[in-house]
Structures are given as structure tokens and as C-alpha cells.
């Protein structure tokens, strides 16, 4: 199997498209990969032998995703999970192109003003390079440095960045502000990557469910039409 990380590398195990639980690759066999049980494994009631899970890790191109089956759990001082791959590792997209999420409440603080001015805003989307948020109308200017803080499902993003875009919202209420981050520490990068992975997984699942619902509705319409009584033919005039 190609593209697997080296033993002892960090990876994450996702249960029901959750945020991912940190684990470590212990060994690779011809039929399975063996990992340490993720942190908090005793609370993962949905993770039992026979469960379909998702494993992902990060390489130079971004996230690599691998669907797996939990085949066996080895007890011991360090519990180990034996996972059988259900396909080949798949690159989930290059990091520089990934942007998504949004909806979380956040706080913005100015750095130039003394004392600092702090106000609430709403995250619109996020990437490893920048975030876009909605905020009430303000006198923020391009080039101004801000401190942004937002509680994501995977951790707290608290960082300093520079305003690169300020424009009025399309509905005329408030502004859309783009803040480009100063270089991020590795733990912060991981928080963002995991957040985007979960967001992308949930979006893909919703799309599949909507497509399935649309197909079911179309099939029901065809069945109903087939059983609908036709109108009696009008006798032809002589």
C-alpha cells in the first residue's frame, strides 16, 4: 500500500465524521495497519469491532484520507486497534486551495488603538492562510493588524493577522473583512486542518443525502404517474 506515513507518525481517527481523535501508527502488515487506541477511546461508543472509520494524516500536499474497518482490538498496557483498509489512501486536496466552514462567533481586537477596541463578529470561512468574517461597520483599514479569536470544534484559534480586504456586505448590513494570518504555529495549523476536514466530510455527506432524496422523489413521481388513471378518449367527431 502506497502513501502510508512512517511508523510512529501521528494520525487521526474519525468516528461518524467527528473532529478526529489523535492516534499513532504502530505497524503496517500486508492486510492491516495497527494504531494505538486514540485518546478517549473508552468514550467512543460508536467505535467497536466491525465499525467503518476514517483515518487521515497530513503530508506535504495536505490531508490524506483512508477509509478503514476496525477488525480487532488488542488489549494491554497500550490498547491497539487493527484497521483493515477499504481502499487506497486518497489526497483530500492541497492545503492552499482549502477554504470552508463558518458560522462560529468570534472576537476581534485592534492592536494600533490604545486601549484596544474589541468587538464581536461572525466567521464566514477559514483557511490556513486567512479567515473571512462579518463584522459591524467600522473604520478598520487595509494593513491594520488585529487579534482574532474563535472557538472551533477542534480547538481555539487565537492569532494575529493583517487586514487585507474590507468591503460592505452585499445586504448593506456590516462589512466583510479578510484577515491574513502571520505565520502559524504547527498546533494551530493542525486545529485548522482538522476543522476543515470535518467540515468537508459533513458537506459531502449532506450532498449525498440530498442526491439520494432527489432520486427517491423522482422515482416516486414516476411510480405515481404510472398508476394514475388516464382520461377517457374523446370520441371522434363524424
From TrEMBL:
Signal sequence bounds: none
Region (Disordered): 84-106, 209-238
Biased segments, Low complexity type: 212-226
Residue ranges of every copy of the PilZ domain listed in the record: 94-197
UniProt xrefs under InterPro entries: PilZ_domain
Any GO molecular function: cyclic-di-GMP binding
Protein name as annotated: PilZ domain-containing protein
Protein source organism: Planobispora longispora
Amino acid at each position: 500500500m502506497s502513501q502510508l506515513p512512517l511508523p510512529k507518525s501521528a494520525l487521526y481517527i474519525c468516528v461518524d465524521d467527528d473532529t478526529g481523535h489523535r492516534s499513532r501508527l504502530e505497524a503496517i502488515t500486508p492486510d492491516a495497519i495497527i494504531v494505538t487506541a486514540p485518546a478517549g477511546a473508552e468514550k467512543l461508543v460508536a467505535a467497536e469491532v466491525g465499525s467503518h472509520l476514517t483515518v487521515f494524516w497530513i503530508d506535504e500536499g495536505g490531508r490524506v484520507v483512508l477509509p478503514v474497518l476496525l477488525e480487532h482490538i488488542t488489549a494491554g498496557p497500550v490498547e491497539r486497534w487493527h484497521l483493515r483498509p477499504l481502499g487506497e489512501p486518497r489526497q483530500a486536496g492541497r492545503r492552499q486551495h482549502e477554504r470552508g466552514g463558518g458560522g462560529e462567533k468570534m472576537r476581534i481586537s485592534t492592536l494600533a488603538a490604545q486601549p484596544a477596541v474589541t468587538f464581536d463578529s461572525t466567521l464566514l470561512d477559514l483557511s490556513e492562510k486567512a479567515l473571512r468574517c462579518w463584522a459591524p461597520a467600522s473604520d478598520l483599514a487595509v494593513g491594520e493588524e488585529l487579534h482574532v479569536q474563535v472557538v472551533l470544534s477542534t480547538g481555539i484559534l487565537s492569532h494575529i493577522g493583517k487586514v487585507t480586504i474590507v468591503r460592505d456586505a452585499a445586504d448593506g448590513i456590516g462589512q466583510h473583512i479578510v484577515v491574513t494570518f502571520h505565520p502559524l504555529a504547527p498546533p494551530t495549523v493542525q486545529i485548522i486542518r482538522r476543522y476543515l476536514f470535518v467540515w468537508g466530510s459533513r458537506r459531502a455527506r449532506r450532498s449525498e443525502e440530498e442526491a439520494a432524496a432527489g432520486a427517491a422523489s423522482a422515482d416516486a413521481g414516476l411510480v405515481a404517474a404510472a398508476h394514475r388513471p388516464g382520461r377517457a378518449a374523446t370520441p371522434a367527431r363524424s
